[in-house]
Amino acid sequence: MRSTVITGIGSLVTNDPSVGGRLGLLEDAAVVIEDGRIAWVGASRSAPSADARFDAGGRAVIPGFVDSHSHLVFAGDRTAEFNARMSGASYTAGGIRTTVAATRAASDAELDANVARYLGEALRQGTTVLECKSGYGLTVEDEARALRIAGRHTDETTYLGAHVVPPDYADDPAAYVELVTGPMLDACVPYARWVDVFCERGAFDGDQARAILTAGAKRGLTPRVHANQLTEGPGVQLAVELGAASADHCTHLSDADVAALASAADTTVATLLPGAEFSTRARYPDARRLLDAGATVALSTDCNPGSSFTSSVPFCIAIAVREMGMTPDEALWSATAGGAAALRRTDVGRVTVGARADLALLDAPSHVHLAYRPGVPLVAAVWRGGELVAGAA
Protein backbone atom coordinates (compact mmCIF):
# COMPACT_ATOMS: atom_id res chain seq x y z
CA MET A 1 0.00 0.00 0.00
CA ARG A 2 1.88 3.06 -1.32
CA SER A 3 1.44 6.48 0.27
CA THR A 4 2.13 10.03 -0.93
CA VAL A 5 2.41 13.22 1.08
CA ILE A 6 1.74 16.57 -0.58
CA THR A 7 3.49 19.27 1.44
CA GLY A 8 3.96 23.02 1.11
CA ILE A 9 0.33 23.72 0.25
CA GLY A 10 -0.08 27.47 0.61
CA SER A 11 -3.89 27.30 0.83
CA LEU A 12 -5.86 24.06 1.12
CA VAL A 13 -9.63 23.98 0.54
CA THR A 14 -11.04 21.05 2.52
CA ASN A 15 -14.80 21.83 2.45
CA ASP A 16 -14.73 20.57 6.03
CA PRO A 17 -16.98 22.82 8.17
CA SER A 18 -15.27 21.64 11.35
CA VAL A 19 -12.11 23.43 10.22
CA GLY A 20 -13.97 26.73 10.04
CA GLY A 21 -15.61 28.84 7.36
CA ARG A 22 -17.47 27.68 4.29
CA LEU A 23 -14.40 26.15 2.66
CA GLY A 24 -12.52 24.85 5.69
CA LEU A 25 -9.36 26.65 4.58
CA LEU A 26 -5.99 25.56 5.93
CA GLU A 27 -2.78 27.50 5.30
CA ASP A 28 0.70 25.96 4.98
CA ALA A 29 -0.96 22.55 4.87
CA ALA A 30 -0.20 18.99 3.86
CA VAL A 31 -2.24 15.99 2.75
CA VAL A 32 -1.36 12.30 2.91
CA ILE A 33 -2.84 9.97 0.29
CA GLU A 34 -2.94 6.24 0.97
CA ASP A 35 -4.69 3.52 -1.00
CA GLY A 36 -6.58 6.11 -3.07
CA ARG A 37 -8.02 7.89 -0.03
CA ILE A 38 -7.17 10.89 2.11
CA ALA A 39 -5.35 9.44 5.13
CA TRP A 40 -4.27 12.64 6.92
CA VAL A 41 -4.77 16.41 6.66
CA GLY A 42 -2.97 19.03 8.71
CA ALA A 43 -0.13 21.51 9.04
CA SER A 44 2.75 20.95 6.66
CA ARG A 45 5.29 21.00 9.48
CA SER A 46 3.49 18.09 11.16
CA ALA A 47 3.08 15.90 8.09
CA PRO A 48 3.95 12.23 8.63
CA SER A 49 6.39 10.47 6.37
CA ALA A 50 5.22 8.66 3.26
CA ASP A 51 6.62 6.58 0.42
CA ALA A 52 6.57 9.54 -1.97
CA ARG A 53 6.65 13.29 -1.49
CA PHE A 54 5.24 16.10 -3.64
CA ASP A 55 6.04 19.74 -2.86
CA ALA A 56 3.20 22.09 -3.78
CA GLY A 57 5.58 25.04 -3.50
CA GLY A 58 3.14 27.35 -1.74
CA ARG A 59 0.41 26.87 -4.33
CA ALA A 60 -3.28 26.21 -3.61
CA VAL A 61 -4.90 22.77 -3.57
CA ILE A 62 -8.64 22.26 -3.93
CA PRO A 63 -10.95 19.23 -4.16
CA GLY A 64 -11.43 17.94 -7.69
CA PHE A 65 -14.43 19.50 -9.38
CA VAL A 66 -17.65 17.47 -9.42
CA ASP A 67 -19.51 18.20 -12.67
CA SER A 68 -22.99 16.86 -12.08
CA HIS A 69 -24.56 17.72 -15.45
CA SER A 70 -23.21 16.93 -18.93
CA HIS A 71 -24.24 15.43 -22.27
CA LEU A 72 -21.13 13.86 -23.79
CA VAL A 73 -22.45 10.97 -25.88
CA PHE A 74 -23.01 12.73 -29.16
CA ALA A 75 -21.71 13.15 -32.68
CA GLY A 76 -21.78 16.02 -35.15
CA ASP A 77 -21.27 19.74 -34.90
CA ARG A 78 -23.62 22.69 -34.34
CA THR A 79 -21.32 25.52 -35.27
CA ALA A 80 -23.87 26.90 -37.74
CA GLU A 81 -26.53 27.05 -35.01
CA PHE A 82 -24.17 28.86 -32.65
CA ASN A 83 -23.17 31.28 -35.40
CA ALA A 84 -26.84 31.99 -36.10
CA ARG A 85 -27.52 32.73 -32.42
CA MET A 86 -24.56 35.05 -32.24
CA SER A 87 -26.01 36.76 -35.29
CA GLY A 88 -29.39 37.34 -33.67
CA ALA A 89 -31.40 34.10 -33.81
CA SER A 90 -33.05 32.94 -30.56
CA TYR A 91 -32.38 29.63 -28.82
CA THR A 92 -35.06 26.91 -28.65
CA ALA A 93 -34.89 23.24 -27.71
CA GLY A 94 -35.31 22.25 -31.37
CA GLY A 95 -31.59 22.19 -32.15
CA ILE A 96 -31.26 18.98 -30.16
CA ARG A 97 -32.77 17.11 -33.11
CA THR A 98 -29.76 17.99 -35.27
CA THR A 99 -27.47 16.19 -32.84
CA VAL A 100 -29.88 13.25 -32.63
CA ALA A 101 -29.54 12.58 -36.36
CA ALA A 102 -25.73 12.72 -36.23
CA THR A 103 -25.55 10.55 -33.11
CA ARG A 104 -27.78 7.85 -34.53
CA ALA A 105 -25.53 7.69 -37.61
CA ALA A 106 -22.27 7.45 -35.63
CA SER A 107 -20.49 4.21 -34.75
CA ASP A 108 -19.89 3.03 -31.20
CA ALA A 109 -16.19 3.71 -31.67
CA GLU A 110 -16.83 7.31 -32.74
CA LEU A 111 -19.10 7.99 -29.80
CA ASP A 112 -16.71 6.34 -27.34
CA ALA A 113 -13.81 8.42 -28.68
CA ASN A 114 -15.84 11.60 -28.25
CA VAL A 115 -16.68 10.81 -24.62
CA ALA A 116 -13.03 10.00 -23.88
CA ARG A 117 -11.91 13.22 -25.55
CA TYR A 118 -14.19 15.51 -23.58
CA LEU A 119 -13.66 13.67 -20.30
CA GLY A 120 -9.91 14.05 -20.80
CA GLU A 121 -10.39 17.73 -21.54
CA ALA A 122 -12.38 18.14 -18.31
CA LEU A 123 -9.86 16.14 -16.28
CA ARG A 124 -6.99 18.39 -17.33
CA GLN A 125 -9.05 21.32 -16.00
CA GLY A 126 -9.55 19.68 -12.61
CA THR A 127 -12.80 17.71 -12.99
CA THR A 128 -12.48 14.34 -11.28
CA VAL A 129 -16.17 13.28 -11.22
CA LEU A 130 -18.49 13.84 -14.16
CA GLU A 131 -22.12 12.83 -14.70
CA CYS A 132 -23.09 11.90 -18.27
CA LYS A 133 -26.56 11.71 -19.82
CA SER A 134 -28.02 9.91 -22.78
CA GLY A 135 -30.60 11.83 -24.80
CA TYR A 136 -29.19 12.12 -28.32
CA GLY A 137 -30.39 8.72 -29.53
CA LEU A 138 -34.11 8.75 -28.69
CA THR A 139 -34.66 5.17 -29.85
CA VAL A 140 -34.58 2.12 -27.60
CA GLU A 141 -31.35 0.87 -29.15
CA ASP A 142 -29.59 4.23 -29.32
CA GLU A 143 -30.43 5.30 -25.77
CA ALA A 144 -29.22 2.00 -24.33
CA ARG A 145 -26.11 2.26 -26.53
CA ALA A 146 -25.38 5.77 -25.23
CA LEU A 147 -25.59 4.65 -21.61
CA ARG A 148 -23.39 1.60 -22.22
CA ILE A 149 -20.76 3.86 -23.76
CA ALA A 150 -21.03 6.45 -20.99
CA GLY A 151 -20.73 3.69 -18.39
CA ARG A 152 -17.28 2.79 -19.70
CA HIS A 153 -16.09 6.18 -18.49
CA THR A 154 -18.18 7.13 -15.44
CA ASP A 155 -20.46 5.56 -12.83
CA GLU A 156 -22.73 8.62 -12.91
CA THR A 157 -24.95 7.81 -15.89
CA THR A 158 -28.37 9.33 -16.49
CA TYR A 159 -31.21 8.06 -18.67
CA LEU A 160 -32.53 11.07 -20.62
CA GLY A 161 -34.75 9.46 -23.20
CA ALA A 162 -37.06 12.39 -22.44
CA HIS A 163 -34.79 15.04 -23.93
CA VAL A 164 -37.17 16.06 -26.72
CA VAL A 165 -39.84 14.30 -28.75
CA PRO A 166 -38.01 13.04 -31.86
CA PRO A 167 -39.30 13.85 -35.36
CA ASP A 168 -40.57 10.30 -35.86
CA TYR A 169 -43.07 10.88 -33.01
CA ALA A 170 -43.85 14.53 -33.71
CA ASP A 171 -47.50 13.72 -34.47
CA ASP A 172 -47.95 11.46 -31.45
CA PRO A 173 -45.96 12.64 -28.41
CA ALA A 174 -48.10 10.48 -26.11
CA ALA A 175 -46.82 7.39 -27.90
CA TYR A 176 -43.26 8.58 -27.35
CA VAL A 177 -43.90 9.00 -23.62
CA GLU A 178 -45.19 5.41 -23.61
CA LEU A 179 -41.96 4.31 -25.29
CA VAL A 180 -39.80 6.26 -22.80
CA THR A 181 -41.65 4.80 -19.81
CA GLY A 182 -41.86 1.29 -21.29
CA PRO A 183 -39.48 -0.50 -23.68
CA MET A 184 -36.84 2.24 -23.67
CA LEU A 185 -36.77 2.36 -19.87
CA ASP A 186 -36.49 -1.44 -19.74
CA ALA A 187 -33.47 -1.35 -22.04
CA CYS A 188 -31.74 1.51 -20.19
CA VAL A 189 -32.29 0.64 -16.52
CA PRO A 190 -29.29 -1.75 -16.35
CA TYR A 191 -26.92 1.02 -17.44
CA ALA A 192 -28.23 4.05 -15.53
CA ARG A 193 -28.26 5.42 -12.00
CA TRP A 194 -30.50 8.43 -12.68
CA VAL A 195 -33.57 9.35 -14.75
CA ASP A 196 -33.96 12.86 -16.14
CA VAL A 197 -36.49 14.82 -18.21
CA PHE A 198 -36.40 18.16 -20.03
CA CYS A 199 -39.53 19.73 -18.52
CA GLU A 200 -39.88 22.76 -20.73
CA ARG A 201 -41.93 24.35 -23.48
CA GLY A 202 -40.99 22.54 -26.69
CA ALA A 203 -40.01 19.39 -24.79
CA PHE A 204 -42.20 17.75 -22.08
CA ASP A 205 -44.95 19.29 -19.99
CA GLY A 206 -45.50 18.71 -16.28
CA ASP A 207 -47.82 15.73 -16.63
CA GLN A 208 -45.52 14.01 -19.11
CA ALA A 209 -42.49 14.72 -16.93
CA ARG A 210 -44.23 13.32 -13.85
CA ALA A 211 -45.11 10.10 -15.68
CA ILE A 212 -41.54 9.64 -16.93
CA LEU A 213 -39.85 10.36 -13.60
CA THR A 214 -42.29 8.21 -11.66
CA ALA A 215 -41.76 5.29 -14.03
CA GLY A 216 -37.99 5.62 -13.66
CA ALA A 217 -38.21 5.81 -9.88
CA LYS A 218 -40.29 2.62 -9.78
CA ARG A 219 -37.42 0.90 -11.58
CA GLY A 220 -34.85 2.14 -9.06
CA LEU A 221 -33.57 5.25 -10.87
CA THR A 222 -33.35 8.48 -8.89
CA PRO A 223 -34.94 11.52 -10.56
CA ARG A 224 -33.21 14.65 -11.81
CA VAL A 225 -35.01 17.41 -13.74
CA HIS A 226 -34.07 19.93 -16.43
CA ALA A 227 -36.20 22.66 -14.85
CA ASN A 228 -37.15 26.25 -15.65
CA GLN A 229 -34.41 26.93 -18.19
CA LEU A 230 -36.33 28.90 -20.81
CA THR A 231 -39.47 29.92 -18.92
CA GLU A 232 -41.14 29.61 -15.54
CA GLY A 233 -42.86 26.24 -15.42
CA PRO A 234 -43.63 23.18 -13.31
CA GLY A 235 -40.12 21.67 -13.36
CA VAL A 236 -38.77 22.94 -10.04
CA GLN A 237 -41.95 22.16 -8.09
CA LEU A 238 -42.05 18.70 -9.63
CA ALA A 239 -38.41 18.06 -8.72
CA VAL A 240 -39.03 18.98 -5.09
CA GLU A 241 -42.28 17.02 -4.90
CA LEU A 242 -40.67 13.84 -6.24
CA GLY A 243 -37.52 14.20 -4.14
CA ALA A 244 -35.27 14.62 -7.17
CA ALA A 245 -31.56 14.88 -6.48
CA SER A 246 -31.38 18.09 -8.47
CA ALA A 247 -33.35 20.68 -10.39
CA ASP A 248 -30.99 21.84 -13.14
CA HIS A 249 -30.83 25.26 -14.85
CA CYS A 250 -33.23 27.12 -12.49
CA THR A 251 -32.99 30.27 -14.59
CA HIS A 252 -36.61 31.44 -14.42
CA LEU A 253 -37.89 31.04 -10.87
CA SER A 254 -40.96 32.33 -9.07
CA ASP A 255 -40.82 33.16 -5.37
CA ALA A 256 -42.60 29.86 -4.76
CA ASP A 257 -39.91 27.98 -6.69
CA VAL A 258 -37.15 29.57 -4.63
CA ALA A 259 -39.00 28.79 -1.41
CA ALA A 260 -39.50 25.17 -2.50
CA LEU A 261 -35.79 24.71 -3.25
CA ALA A 262 -34.88 26.28 0.08
CA SER A 263 -37.26 23.98 1.95
CA ALA A 264 -35.73 20.97 0.17
CA ALA A 265 -32.11 22.06 0.60
CA ASP A 266 -31.14 18.70 2.09
CA THR A 267 -32.76 16.76 -0.75
CA THR A 268 -32.93 18.69 -4.03
CA VAL A 269 -29.95 20.73 -5.19
CA ALA A 270 -30.40 23.73 -7.47
CA THR A 271 -27.77 23.10 -10.15
CA LEU A 272 -26.87 26.21 -12.13
CA LEU A 273 -25.38 25.93 -15.61
CA PRO A 274 -24.08 29.35 -16.66
CA GLY A 275 -22.36 28.01 -19.77
CA ALA A 276 -25.83 27.66 -21.30
CA GLU A 277 -26.72 31.30 -20.70
CA PHE A 278 -23.30 32.41 -21.95
CA SER A 279 -23.73 30.44 -25.17
CA THR A 280 -27.34 31.47 -25.79
CA ARG A 281 -27.08 35.11 -24.64
CA ALA A 282 -29.86 34.44 -22.16
CA ARG A 283 -30.40 35.84 -18.69
CA TYR A 284 -28.16 34.24 -16.08
CA PRO A 285 -29.74 32.47 -13.09
CA ASP A 286 -29.76 34.48 -9.86
CA ALA A 287 -27.56 32.44 -7.55
CA ARG A 288 -27.65 35.13 -4.86
CA ARG A 289 -31.42 34.82 -4.55
CA LEU A 290 -31.16 31.06 -4.07
CA LEU A 291 -28.27 31.20 -1.62
CA ASP A 292 -29.86 33.91 0.50
CA ALA A 293 -33.04 31.82 0.69
CA GLY A 294 -31.07 28.82 1.97
CA ALA A 295 -31.09 26.57 -1.11
CA THR A 296 -28.18 24.23 -1.82
CA VAL A 297 -26.51 25.29 -5.07
CA ALA A 298 -24.24 23.38 -7.45
CA LEU A 299 -22.34 24.70 -10.46
CA SER A 300 -21.81 22.52 -13.52
CA THR A 301 -20.88 22.88 -17.17
CA ASP A 302 -23.86 21.35 -19.03
CA CYS A 303 -21.25 20.36 -21.61
CA ASN A 304 -23.17 19.63 -24.81
CA PRO A 305 -22.73 20.43 -28.51
CA GLY A 306 -25.59 22.91 -28.76
CA SER A 307 -26.18 25.27 -25.86
CA SER A 308 -23.02 24.96 -23.71
CA PHE A 309 -20.03 23.49 -25.50
CA THR A 310 -17.56 23.90 -22.65
CA SER A 311 -15.96 21.34 -20.34
CA SER A 312 -14.39 24.02 -18.13
CA VAL A 313 -15.67 24.28 -14.56
CA PRO A 314 -13.21 27.16 -13.89
CA PHE A 315 -14.90 29.08 -16.70
CA CYS A 316 -18.29 28.51 -15.06
CA ILE A 317 -16.91 29.62 -11.70
CA ALA A 318 -15.70 32.89 -13.22
CA ILE A 319 -19.12 33.53 -14.80
CA ALA A 320 -20.93 32.71 -11.56
CA VAL A 321 -18.84 35.22 -9.64
CA ARG A 322 -19.04 37.95 -12.27
CA GLU A 323 -22.65 37.55 -13.42
CA MET A 324 -24.64 35.54 -10.86
CA GLY A 325 -23.91 37.18 -7.52
CA MET A 326 -21.73 34.43 -6.04
CA THR A 327 -18.60 35.01 -4.01
CA PRO A 328 -15.46 33.11 -5.04
CA ASP A 329 -15.86 30.90 -1.96
CA GLU A 330 -19.50 30.09 -2.78
CA ALA A 331 -18.72 29.34 -6.41
CA LEU A 332 -15.90 26.94 -5.57
CA TRP A 333 -17.98 25.17 -2.93
CA SER A 334 -20.83 24.79 -5.41
CA ALA A 335 -18.48 23.32 -8.05
CA THR A 336 -17.08 20.76 -5.61
CA ALA A 337 -19.19 19.95 -2.54
CA GLY A 338 -22.34 21.26 -4.26
CA GLY A 339 -21.81 18.97 -7.24
CA ALA A 340 -21.22 16.07 -4.87
CA ALA A 341 -24.51 16.84 -3.11
CA ALA A 342 -26.30 16.89 -6.48
CA LEU A 343 -24.96 13.38 -7.08
CA ARG A 344 -25.67 12.37 -3.48
CA ARG A 345 -22.01 11.57 -2.95
CA THR A 346 -20.18 12.00 0.36
CA ASP A 347 -16.86 10.56 -0.78
CA VAL A 348 -15.91 13.35 -3.22
CA GLY A 349 -15.96 17.15 -3.29
CA ARG A 350 -13.98 17.46 -0.07
CA VAL A 351 -10.50 16.85 1.34
CA THR A 352 -11.14 15.01 4.59
CA VAL A 353 -9.90 11.74 6.05
CA GLY A 354 -11.60 8.86 4.29
CA ALA A 355 -12.67 10.82 1.22
CA ARG A 356 -11.47 9.73 -2.20
CA ALA A 357 -8.18 11.45 -2.97
CA ASP A 358 -9.40 13.74 -5.75
CA LEU A 359 -7.32 16.91 -5.77
CA ALA A 360 -6.37 19.76 -8.09
CA LEU A 361 -3.19 21.80 -7.69
CA LEU A 362 -3.57 25.40 -8.85
CA ASP A 363 -0.72 27.42 -10.25
CA ALA A 364 -1.84 30.21 -7.91
CA PRO A 365 -1.66 30.99 -4.19
CA SER A 366 -5.44 30.94 -3.69
CA HIS A 367 -8.62 29.43 -5.14
CA VAL A 368 -9.85 33.01 -5.65
CA HIS A 369 -7.65 33.14 -8.76
CA LEU A 370 -10.16 30.86 -10.52
CA ALA A 371 -12.46 33.90 -10.76
CA TYR A 372 -9.73 36.57 -10.54
CA ARG A 373 -7.89 35.25 -13.62
CA PRO A 374 -10.67 34.04 -15.94
CA GLY A 375 -9.61 32.01 -18.95
CA VAL A 376 -6.13 31.26 -17.60
CA PRO A 377 -5.27 27.51 -17.36
CA LEU A 378 -4.46 27.45 -13.65
CA VAL A 379 -4.77 23.71 -12.97
CA ALA A 380 -1.20 22.44 -12.73
CA ALA A 381 -1.80 18.86 -11.56
CA VAL A 382 -4.73 16.56 -10.85
CA TRP A 383 -5.00 13.49 -8.61
CA ARG A 384 -7.98 11.16 -8.98
CA GLY A 385 -8.32 8.31 -6.56
CA GLY A 386 -4.81 9.07 -5.36
CA GLU A 387 -3.23 8.72 -8.81
CA LEU A 388 -1.55 11.67 -10.50
CA VAL A 389 -3.57 11.70 -13.76
CA ALA A 390 -2.75 15.12 -15.22
CA GLY A 391 -0.07 17.75 -14.93
CA ALA A 392 3.31 17.85 -13.27
CA ALA A 393 5.01 14.67 -12.10
How would you describe this structure to a colleague?
This protein is an alpha/beta fold and about 400 residues long. The longest helix has 17 residues, at about 110-125. The mean pLDDT is about 95. Helix 8 (about 235-240) links the parallel strand 12 and strand 13. Helix 9 packs across helix 11. About 35% of the residues lie in helices and about 20% in strands. It is globular and about 70 Å long. The strands form three sheets. Strands 1, 2, 3, 4, 5, 16, 17 and 18 form an eight-stranded mixed β-sheet that branches. It has helices at about 80-85, 95-105, 110-125, 140-150, 175-180, 185-190, 205-220, 235-240, 255-265, 275-280, 285-295, 315-325, 330-340, 370; strands at about 5-15, 25-35, 35-45, 50-55, 60-65, 65, 125-130, 130-135, 155-160, 195-200, 220-225, 225, 245-250, 270, 295-300, 360, 380-385, 385-390.
